[in-house]
TrEMBL record:
Segments passing through the bilayer: 12-32, 52-70, 122-144, 150-168, 242-261
Primary localization: membrane
Source organism, top-level taxon: Bacteria
An annotated GO cellular component: ATP-binding cassette (ABC) transporter complex
Gene Ontology terms, MF aspect: ABC-type transporter activity; ATP binding; ATP hydrolysis activity; peptide transmembrane transporter activity
Name assigned to this protein: Cyclic peptide export ABC transporter
Alphabetized NCBIfam families for the sequence: cyc_pep_trnsptr
Domain ABC transporter: 330-541
């Protein structure tokens, strides 16, 4: 759960509350000052200008000083909250499991942009509402003092107006919830458009189709529900204003004759009502912002719950352990994994990896090789069976440490801009691998990262493997790494690089379709429809 404010900020909020009370009080004093002047003027007297000017000056100075202080405080609070929530979400994204993140990308984007912004807007609005409420309360007390009968009639009208507002604004909130959901769909489609821009360039039909009916459809629906929401709020605002005008007219027409008020009270009453109409109107205009902020806050909380808190310390736990962390054996005992979405299942699988092994896994497309790999490296949560490292069961408490044994080049790998997980790069070693992978004429290496990643697909994959080696985790896992390499380099990889890495102490697990090189491993397995079969490597040569 996100803690919105620290102790210092809570103190600042307390100060802002005090300033708001002072601000509302002087606001109220101003109307009293004006009312006093009106009384003097309607009774054909001449006011003592210096008296009123001094009071006016005090009121105006205090009003604007507190107003500026409140605004600055709010800007500080809103911006620090904005970035705190954003960082908190990113932190959760970094520590959450891959399976959760891969399904929640659009939701994360819309929360990071849309929802956090809505919460920030709320802080600006809350101050207006708070000061308007205080001013209104002070004015209401003043009205009571002027005429209790008219005060109760006014109060009754306010309550009716509020009930109508409350009823109608429920409709508005419901429409905002719909539009928030649609916003997520919009971002999902936008994401597809950005990632598929090459395909769209090649075939504009995809672009046209995704634009209409999909993106246009979602944006139209979103536009309609937002309009419905704002209209609902607008209707209730208008209803509130009509009530106020009716009230003022009734008091002016019947205040003296039927309600027993003096002419001076009626004027003061009317003036006070007119005066509070603006801040109260502004405050009610801000209700949609509050409504959206509540919806967004719910979203942020739900997203936090989805991520789960159990791994929130994962990053800190494995810090700096990469080079020291090692293993002797890893065992999979009766391990199974099933995708609920497709009902595809692997297992039960028994497998033993020993330090220094070179293991190749081959098999038909869709036979479950990547699923098995994700299970071995504990990227997928274990559903059935046991994962054992050196006689120790891998569980929630040691899973991060277990994962840190593996350096993986996924089939759909991502090459980061910088060497985030290498504390100190040994340039000599880095250049040795750059030469080995025949990339030294294309790329140079600094302590931050590779000089460029704008390379061919095969070349980028070579960098990904160099990076995986430099991280120095004991097990290198490769998912069809050689598939993008030319025949010459593929041979170099299987004949020279794999044995070299092996001689340097790396354990290698590779998924491969290169049957020509199946003999280059110690242990060969076939994955067949979710089952792992041990194979004699000579059979495949
Ligand atoms: N994210 C997913 N959600 C649901 N089912 C999935 C998912 N990923 C894979 N599958 C199912 O698991 C099966 C095996 O997929 P997997 O990626 O493990 O195969 P593979 O042997 O690595 O194939 P390839 O050689 O094509 O990479 C697929 O046929 C599919 O039915």
């Amino acid at each position: 759960m996100i803690t919105l404010f620290n102790r210092k900020e809570k103190k600042l909020i307390a100060v802002l509350v005090v300033f708001s009370i002072i601000n509302s009080s002087v606001n109220f004093l101003f109307i009293q000052l004006v009312n006093d002047l009106i009384s003097i003027i309607v009774s054909d007297q001449v006011p003592v200008v210096s008296d009123f000017l001094i009071k006016f000056l005090v009121v105006i100075v205090v009003f604007f000083t507190t107003r500026i202080a409140i605004s600055r405080g709010i800007i500080h609070l809103s911006q620090s909250t904005y970035w705190k929530i954003r960082l908190n979400i990113v932190k959760k994204v970094i520590t959450a499991s891959y399976s959760v993140i891969s399904k929640k990308k659009a939701e994360i984007y819309s929360t990071l942009t849309h929802d956090v912004e809505n919460i920030t807007q709320l802080s600006f609005v809350l101050v207006n509402i708070f000061t308007a409420t205080l001013t209104a309360l002070a004015c209401m007390a003043y009205l009571f003092f002027l005429s209790s009968t008219i005060f109760f009639i006014t109060l009754f009208n306010f309550l009716i107006a509020y009930s109508i507002y409350h009823f109608v604004s429920k409709k508005g909130t419901a429409a905002f919830i719909v539009s928030r959901k649609l916003e997520e769909n919009f971002l999902k489609l936008l994401n597809e458009t950005l990632h598929g821009s090459k395909e769209i360039n090649m075939d504009r039909k995809i672009g046209r189709k995704i634009l209409s009916p999909y993106i246009t459809g979602v944006s139209k629906k979103c536009e309609h529900s937002s309009k419905d929401a704002y209209n609902a709020f607008l209707n209730s605002q208008v209803a509130g204003q009509i009530f106020s005008f009716v009230m003022i007219m009734l008091i002016l027409l019947f205040g003296q004759t039927y309600l027993g008020a003096t002419s001076s009270s009626v004027i003061k009453f009317t003036f006070t009502l007119l005066y509070i109409m603006e801040p109260v109107g502004n405050a009610t205009n801000s209700i949609p912002v509050i409504s959206k902020a509540f919806i967004s806050w719910d979203k942020i909380k739900t997203l936090g719950v989805t991520f789960g808190d159990e791994k929130s310390n994962g990053i800190e736990k494995v810090k700096n352990r990469f080079c020291q962390n090692n293993f002797n054996t890893i065992e999979l005992k009766k391990v199974s994994y099933e995708y609920p979405e497709s009902n595809f299942k692997i297992g039960p699988i028994n497998l033993e990896l020993q330090k220094g092994d070179t293991v190749f896994i081959y098999g038909e497309n869709g036979s479950g090789k990547t699923t098995l790999m994700n299970t071995i490296i504990a990227l997928s949560k274990l559903q059935k069976g046991e994962l054992i490292r050196d006689q120790n069961l891998v569980n929630e408490s040691n899973i991060e440490e277990y994962r840190s044994l593996f350096s993986v080049v996924f089939n759909d790998y991502f090459l980061f801009d910088q060497f985030y997980n290498i504390d100190k790069i040994v340039l000599e070693e880095a250049y040795y691998y750059l030469h080995l992978f025949e990339m030294s004429d294309k790329v140079s290496i600094s302590s931050n990262g590779f000089s460029s990643t704008d390379l061919s697909t095969g070349q980028r994959k070579r960098l990904a493997l160099i990076y995986a080696i430099l991280v120095k985790k004991p097990i290198i896992v490769l998912d069809e790494w050689a598939a993008d390499q030319d025949p010459y380099f593929r041979q170099k990889f299987y004949h020279d690089i794999v044995p070299l890495l092996n001689s340097k102490g790396f354990t290698i697990v590779a998924i491969t379709h290169d049957d020509k090189y199946y003999h280059c491993c110690d242990k060969l397995f076939e994955m067949s429809n979710g089952k792992l079969l041990k194979k004699e490597k000579t059979l495949q040569v």
